[in-house]
Specification:
The protein is α/β, with parallel strands linked by helices. The chain contains 16 helices and 15 strands. A six-stranded mixed sheet has the order 10-9-11-12-13-15, sandwiched between helices. Helix 4 runs antiparallel to helix 5 and helix 10 runs parallel beside helix 14.
Length: 529
């Protein structure tokens, strides 16, 4: 029963996320019921919230005080220049933290009562529900692990196909095919350089390896007519850039995003239910907190600060630079704990290296926070609730950067995809709608230009379209090898351009597929928004 198996696989993904909590989903569900965004929960759950408000009046009183504090914080810039505003921000965030700690203390005894707490996040959707919400020309490619086997699902508006990803006895293993593909793109370790000769090679090893991997994953030809592909990976497939896998056309290998007559966009989701566009268009959100530091040990913060200056000249609005290093004369201490401050940030860009964490959620995007070891992403799942809706992290590391090699003794590198899966689930639980995160970091001009073009396009098109446009725009530019710490060039090398997937395949776009708001979406005069 393919449809029943699919539903069970979605529940298994949710259970894997819940397993990262000491007390399971109970506290998470109560936090969302009490403090979650009303737009993210059903009418039935809103009624449950009203019942909770009557049963737990002390908690409800604190909720009211939290709302008042957050309204005041909304009137203050994310990084105030006025000393009086900065001091008020610190005081309000401290008050918010105190109130939230009191709420958290109350939640634990509440969780031991018989109070209902339905699992709000993530939702579970059956195939027919997915199909009803799927946009035309969008297909979802879902991979499921079960009993040691890997299954694929392709779902579009009208059809569903299911298949077993076969492993013949003498054929290379799927793990080997993935490793060959990543290695062919230049990933041998996190700092190793790729040569200009490899970048210019028209028959690069990644092309044939990408074609072999695609054929293994899809099996027989699957004739599905789509212009948008949503991939729901599992295990090491999280480290695979599907958009650069190749199809063979007239003896030539071409990446998926440029293989067809129509432009193809690719995005990812941790669950099929989290690939669905919301009911409302994506609103413009203004300020971008841009934390800058060193993406590579060979570089310094001037490289990333120069990138932010270029973004400003490109017309990207609302950039607020914030240095990650206390050696910077503009450095300032974080105004509060990271997970309280996160509720004030709507868009977050981190042009800084994010060290490999000891556990999938034991890292912080706020690299300039001196207390980041105690303010990890895991704490974002506690009250106060909320986080950035757009998150861009080009300095994240995964096992893709070393072609899935077994990590050296003492290394904390994860090999099973949990680092990306759990990060996506946690950040989306806190309100993220779009996450652009690196599988490996190149840390050079091309990487930062890709991010800049994506941000410039983001308010005018869907995230997947914005990312594809960024790839196409940057891919025709000459490669500035002097500003590419992971490219080895000599004086005799010919000019290269930035179209190699070593640069753009490094990024993973996790997104719901929401369209940006247009003038038609605005309420008419006299009409309630």
């Amino acid at each position: 029963d393919a449809e029943r198996a699919f539903e069970i696989s979605e529940k298994a993904r949710r259970a894997k996320f819940y397993a990262s909590f000491r007390l399971g989903p109970r506290l998470l569900s109560l936090r969302l019921l009490f403090e979650g965004n009303p737009g993210d929960i059903t009418q039935e759950m809103l009624l449950e919230r009203q019942t909770l408000a009557l049963d737990f009046t002390r908690f409800t009183k604190l909720s009211g005080e939290v709302r008042d504090v957050r309204k005041e914080l909304q009137m203050i810039p994310v990084v105030p220049n006025d000393p009086a505003q900065a001091e008020k921000q610190r005081q309000l965030l401290a008050k918010l933290e105190t109130l939230s700690l009191a709420q958290e203390a109350m939640l634990r005894p509440i969780s031991l009562t018989r109070t209902k707490s339905p699992n709000i996040f993530p939702p579970i959707m059956k195939i027919e529900e997915l199909r009803a919400q799927l946009p035309e020309k969008t297909a979802i490619l879902v991979f499921v692990e079960a009993m040691g086997d890997l299954y694929g699902y392709m779902i579009d508006k009208r059809y569903t196909s299911q298949w077993l990803v076969t492993q013949e006895s003498r054929a290379a293993s799927l793990q080997t095919l993935i490793a060959n593909y990543l290695d062919g793109m230049g990933n041998r370790d996190g700092n190793r350089q790729i040569t200009v000769k490899d970048l210019n090679d028209p028959n690069g090893r990644w092309k044939k390896a990408g074609n072999e991997l695609l054929k293994r994953l899809l099996g027989e030809n699957r004739q599905v007519n789509f212009t948008e592909l949503v991939v729901v990976p599992t295990g090491p497939l999280w480290y695979v850039p599907f958009e650069s896998m190749t199809v063979e056309i007239n003896g030539e290998y071409r990446p998926l995003i440029s293989a067809g007559r129509d432009p193809l966009t690719v995005r990812y989701a941790p669950m099929a239910s989290l690939a669905m566009p919301g009911k409302n268009s994506r609103a413009a959100m203004g300020e971008i907190l841009a934390i800058y530091g060193r993406l590579q040990t060979k570089s310094d913060a001037t490289v990333t600060l120069d990138a932010i200056d270029r973004y400003d000249k490109m017309g990207i609005p609302g950039l607020i630079p914030m240095p990650a290093s206390n050696n910077d004369p503009n450095f300032r201490e974080f105004p509060g704990t990271a997970h309280a401050f996160a509720t004030q940030v709507k868009r977050l860009l981190v042009l800084d290296d994010i060290p490999i964490a000891s556990a999938p959620l034991a890292w912080s995007p706020f690299t300039g926070d001196r207390a980041k070891q105690n303010n990890t992403v895991a704490r974002w799942l506690e009250l106060p609730w909320g986080g950035p809706q757009l998150i861009v992290l080009p300095g994240f590391h995964t096992a893709a950067e070393s072609s899935l090699k077994t990590p050296a003794r003492g290394s904390r590198m994860v090999l099973n995809g949990d680092d990306l899966f759990l990060a996506a689930m946690a950040l989306e639980a806190c309100g993220a709608k779009t996450i652009l995160i690196s599988r490996w970091r190149t840390g050079g001009r091309a990487s930062m230009d890709l991010v800049g073009e994506f941000l410039r396009n983001y308010d005018n098109m869907s995230a997947a379209e914005a990312w594809r446009e960024a790839i196409m725009d940057v891919g025709v530019n000459p490669l500035v090898t002097d500003e590419e710490p992971r490219v080895r060039a000599t004086a005799s090398d010919p000019q290269a351009i930035a179209n190699h997937p070593f640069f753009w395949g490094a990024f993973l776009l996790i997104d719901r597929g929401d369209k940006p708001a247009t003038n038609e979406d605005a309420p008419a005069v006299g009409q309630a928004p």
